[in-house]
Amino acid sequence: MDVCEGCGLRVAGGAVGCQAMFDEFRAREMSELAPSYASTRLTVDVYCLQHPDRFCVSAKSLAAHLTGLGWALERGGGEWGLRKLQRWLDSSPKLDKPALPAGHGAVTIADLASAPDTDAYMTALDRWARSTWTAYSELHEIAARWIDAAVA
Ligand SMILES: [Zn+2]
Asked: pLDDT digits over 74-106, tens only?
């Protein structure tokens, strides 16, 4: 079985198979599972942080996903904050890209994709988000600084 080099998922096709699973899940997430914009947004942030070689190449893209995840888990996740974060990123703040962690968490999109209903999906999303956030613990401090700058 192939392995996705981003998240470590064992799936046929490796990273390509992982992306296909994500795309298929996203359609189901938006049409039947997600109760709000915030949860679909969180899914994108977590998936991108687990696959930084493709989705967090620039400091700005890293900041977008890292602050999105931090906002959701550490600051209550209100949509007003997501809007402030977007406005901050659109203002092109000067950002230095920190070194990224080698591991990206043990929970993968496969754990979400197997959720049969909204309750199971919300539980899996929370586990996946927390696992990935913990993997990025070296970047919590910079994430907090970026969030403060955005919502100030
Ligand atoms: Zn993957």
From this structure: 999 988 999 999 999 999 999 999 999 999 999
How far does the centroid of ligand 1 lie from the alpha carbon of residue 148, in Å?
A: 30
Q: What's the Cα-to-Cα distance from 43 to each of 46, 70, 72, 126, 149, rounded to whole Å?
A: 5, 13, 11, 10, 23
Distance between Cα 3 and ligand 1 center (Å):
8
* Distance from the alpha carbon of residue 48 to the mean position of ligand 1, in angstroms: 9
Query: Which is nearest to 27 in space by CA: 113, 108, 107?
Result: 113
**Tokens standing for 24?**
């298929």
* Rounded distance from Cα 103 to ligand 1 centre (Å): 12
What separation in Å is there between the alpha carbon of 22 and the centre of ligand 1?
Answer: 8
Taking the centre of ligand 1 as the mean of its atom positions, its distance from the CA of residue 89, in whole angstroms, is 26
The DSSP bridge partners found for residue 3 are 10
How far apart are the C-alpha atoms of 119 and 47, rounded to whole Å? Answer: 20
- Tell me the CA–centroid distance for residue 91 and ligand 1, in Å: 31
Q: Provide the residue type at 29 as one letter.
A: E
Tens of pLDDT, residue by residue over 25-59, are: 999 999 999 988 889 999 999 999 999 999 999 99
CA distance 22 to 109: 6
